[in-house]
């Protein structure tokens, strides 16, 4: 019951009404209505009860010095002002405290309940194979050892091992890999991953709460619970201010024998400006960030970002485009590059495989004519076979070509070693049992990635790459973007462990976009999600969301956070100086509780004005200690691609 009353009194309508009553109690007596001073009781009661409740609650339930809070000091000042009959002073300090609490609540919205999207990835049904045939059951009834059939387009209902069948699986939900993975008998598969091509039979190994997807959900919850709230700056100062203010007030009373001076000391010592410094600066910063496409969900996240020394990046969809593109066309037969791409796209035109679709899309972008294929056949997880103009074309993995009895020439083998070292997916192209060439596909780095990394280094931040991709792909991207620290082949739980290790060096920020990044985003001191392409669970698990794919927002975010922290510190310093001057004036009797409250209020307004200036502060990298840079062009000439710019290769690692 008491909590409901306090919650109602803390609301915006009651606080506004209290402010109106407080203003009336100040102005009406000057117009011949002295009894109107009693109206201030409305502000004292409405804003003072929540303050008194908070102070008493912390005394009872907090431990150590945390029992002494800013709420306690302001309550003492409010009660002292009431005892000497200065209701306006009592109501004023309680009202400012209420405003500070409202501002803080407005900046600390909790939009982090993203488990709904993650849970939706869990399959609801499963196809279990028994002696009587195939049966459709609830996914929760799957038991370890069950044989499950998964058709194309279905999600795998449990962790397991493929018993029979070949397919291609999108397991980005677990590993973040940009490329779908070909799977065959004996390979491991994860719950919640998407079967794209062929039908497979899977033996369940880990089911229910032990499955990888449920483990992922559990890690998100545990990481959220591990996040301890940051103690407010005003409360940390209160442990010093309370005994100091009481000591000065008592000494003033003993020396001057004037209780009014002692009460004035307590009133002006109340840290209202200190309470307002943080939430007002944070509100201004959050407003500016929103104008620039950055959504900051809490003031705590902004403060922590200002102290971050390490920023960890996911690879796919964060530093890269998140989509496959043709990067290399390597002929090794009679076909030119243009002819090789045209025939390959024609053969893949009826394919549903992501690599085939990317090849077709690339050919269409280059406006190449596609031929109609005959006797098209797709081998799940291996490749395709089609007849074009009377010739049989085979496109697929090296394994498929060897099974077809097609020898791969030595020059192609050497080239594929380089391409694999760069983490690219390869499609071998053969015509009538002779290899015509190789087409490589990759997820390309964002054009602004290198410049962004350089700016972060100039801000004395260490960037680190955490990815589920293979080591070769990660190293190649790092060479392109200027990253020096790389940790690859990481599952979600591995990313969490790496974040914990990095946190030993200082506060860590994690930037990602996938479902698999959610636990790491929760575990990090600050989680930042790519809001445009990012999965809903990643966006909701993060403390900050970038509503644009422009990575230049990352250095801007760090600059804004640093500037906000500096503004808060300056506001606190100035508010303390104003309080010290006011204390001196109170001891000498120049200020009364009412005039002291007004001076005190002026200090609070000054802090708010200082914070408001942050809203229009301009981000200038050259003046923020950030070297203005553009993505560097690769040294050396680009590969000749069909002699017409049809295909440009990614820069080589120097």
Question: What does this entry look like structurally?
Answer:
This protein is an alpha+beta fold and 654 residues long. Among the domains are: 116-224, Calcium-transporting ATPase, cytoplasmic transduction domain A; 292-320 and 446-560, HAD superfamily/HAD-like (Rossmann fold), CATH 3.40.50.1000; 322-335 and 342-350 and 360-444, Calcium-transporting ATPase, cytoplasmic domain N, CATH 3.40.1110.10. Helices cover 48% and strands 18% of the residues. It has 24 helices and 22 strands. The strands form four sheets. Strands 10-22-21-20-11-18-19 form a seven-stranded mixed sheet, with helices on both faces. A six-stranded antiparallel sheet has the order 2-1-3-9-4-7, with no helix packed on it. Strand 21, helix 22 and strand 22 (544-546) form a beta-alpha-beta unit. The longest helix is centred in the C-terminal third of the chain and has 35 residues, at 553-587. The radius of gyration is 33 Å and the shape is elongated. It starts with a helix and ends in a 42-residue tail after the last helix. Residues 107-115, 223-231 and 627-654 have low confidence and may be disordered.
């Amino acid at each position: 019951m008491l909590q409901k009353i306090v919650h109602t009194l803390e609301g915006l309508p009651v606080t506004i009404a209290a402010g109106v009553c407080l203003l009336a109690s100040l102005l009406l007596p000057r117009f011949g209505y002295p009894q109107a001073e009693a109206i201030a009781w409305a502000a004292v009661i409405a804003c003072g009860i929540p303050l008194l409740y908070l102070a008493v609650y912390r005394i009872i339930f907090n431990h150590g010095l945390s029992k002494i809070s800013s709420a306690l000091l302001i309550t003492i000042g409010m009660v002292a002002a009431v005892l000497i009959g200065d209701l306006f002073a009592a109501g004023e300090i309680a009202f400012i405290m209420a405003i500070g609490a409202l501002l803080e609540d407005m900046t600390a919205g909790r939009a982090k309940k993203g488990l709904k999207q993650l849970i939706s990835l869990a399959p609801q049904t499963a196809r279990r194979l028994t002696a009587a045939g195939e049966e459709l059951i609830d996914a929760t009834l799957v038991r370890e050892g069950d044989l499950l059939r998964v058709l194309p387009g279905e999600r795998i209902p449990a962790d397991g091992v493929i018993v029979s069948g070949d397919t291609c699986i999108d397991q980005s939900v677990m590993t973040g890999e940009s490329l779908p993975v070909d799977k065959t008998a004996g390979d491991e598969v994860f719950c919640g991953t998407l079967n794209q091509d062929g039908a497979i039979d899977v033996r369940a190994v880990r089911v229910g709460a032990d499955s990888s997807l449920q483990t992922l959900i559990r890690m998100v919850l545990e990481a959220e619970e591990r996040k301890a709230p940051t103690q407010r700056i005003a409360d940390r100062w209160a442990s010093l201010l309370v005994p100091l203010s009481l000591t000065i007030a008592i000494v003033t009373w003993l020396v001057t024998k004037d209780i009014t001076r002692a009460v004035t000391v307590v009133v002006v010592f109340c840290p209202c400006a200190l309470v307002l410094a943080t939430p007002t600066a944070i509100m201004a910063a959050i407003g500016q960030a929103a104008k620039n496409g950055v959504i900051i969900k809490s003031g705590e996240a902004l403060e922590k970002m200002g102290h971050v020394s390490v920023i960890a990046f996911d690879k796919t969809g964060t530093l890269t485009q998140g989509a496959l593109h043709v990067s290399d066309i390597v002929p090794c037969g009679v076909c030119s590059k243009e002819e090789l791409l045209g025939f390959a796209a024609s053969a893949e035109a009826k394919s549903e495989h992501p690599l085939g679709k990317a090849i077709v899309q690339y050919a269409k972008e280059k406006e190449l004519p596609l031929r109609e294929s005959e006797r098209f056949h797709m081998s799940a997880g291996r490749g395709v076979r089609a007849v074009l103009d009377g010739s049989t074309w085979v496109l697929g993995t090296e394994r498929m070509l060897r099974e077809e009895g097609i020898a791969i020439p030595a020059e192609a083998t050497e080239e594929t070693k380089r391409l694999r070292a760069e983490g690219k997916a390869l499609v071998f192209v053969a015509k009538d049992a002779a290899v015509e060439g190789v087409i490589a596909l990759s997820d390309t780095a964002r054009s602004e990635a290198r410049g962004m990394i350089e700016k972060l280094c100039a801000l004395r931040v260490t960037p680190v790459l955490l990815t589920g991709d293979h080591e070769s792909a990660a190293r190649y991207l790092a060479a392109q973007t200027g990253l020096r620290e790389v940790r690859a082949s990481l599952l979600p739980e591995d990313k969490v462990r790496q974040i914990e290790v990095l946190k030993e060096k200082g506060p860590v920020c994690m930037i990602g976009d996938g479902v698999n990044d959610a636990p790491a985003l929760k575990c990090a001191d600050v989680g930042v999600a790519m809001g445009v392409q990012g999965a809903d669970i990643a966006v909701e698990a993060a403390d900050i969301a970038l509503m644009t794919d422009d990575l230049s927002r990352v250095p801007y975010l760090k600059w804004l956070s640093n500037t906000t922290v500096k503004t808060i510190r300056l506001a606190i310093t100035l508010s303390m100086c104003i309080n010290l001057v006011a204390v001196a004036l109170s001891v000498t009797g120049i200020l009364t509780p009412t005039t002291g409250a007004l001076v005190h209020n002026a200090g609070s307004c000054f802090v708010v004005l200082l914070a408001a200036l942050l809203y229009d502060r301009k981000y200038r990298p050259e003046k923020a200690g950030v070297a203005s840079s553009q993505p560097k062009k690769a040294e050396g000439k680009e590969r000749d691609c069909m002699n017409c710019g049809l295909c440009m290769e990614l820069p080589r690692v120097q």
